[in-house]
Amino acid sequence: MMMSMGGIRIPKGAIAEITLTSIAGWKITLNARLDTGASMSSIDSRLAAALGFDPILNDVRVIKSSLGKEIRQVVSLPILYDGQEHLCRFNLADRSNLSFPILLGRDFLFPQP
Predict the structure, then answer these.
(1) How far apart are CA 5 and CA 11, in angstroms?
(2) What is the CATH number of the domain that holds 19?
């Protein structure tokens, strides 16, 4: 099954290799799930903390998930994807029971000008 938005087709369950750079300058490369059903990207809160990124004060989002509505803090961090660096905003979540610590949602996949 293919998911499509704006003429771009993303296969269901697609993943992408991304590289994150910590505040201290070390890098980690991992796989992120691409999800056109998610309006905002998400990162495991423990991974964001290990990288040294703190939530943005007074920036929270109400997220609808399988658990219902949740209020989540937001963090901005640079990611390297497809050879280009992007500043991405992520909501912080407990993703420890999920296959991927990062989910890239529509805000990253289909940025608005």
Answers:
(1) 11
(2) 2.40.70.10
pLDDT tens digits, residue range 50-75? 999 988 878 888 888 777 898 999 99
Indicate the burial class of 102 (C-beta count within 10 angstroms; 0-12, 13-18, 19 or more).
buried
Amino acid identity for residue 91 in this structure = N
Residue ranges in 18-75 assigned as alpha helix (H) = 45-50
Give the total number of structural domains in the chain. 1
Query: And the tokens for 112?
Result: 């608005």
5 conformational bin, left if phi > 0, alpha if psi -120 to 50, beta if neither:
beta
Q: How far is it, in rounded angstroms, from Cα 75 to Cα 73?
A: 7
Total-model pTM: 0.88
**Owning domain of residue 26:** 2-7+14-109
Which residue carries 């509505």 as its tokens? 69
The DSSP letter of residue 53 is P
What are the tokens at 36? 């056109």
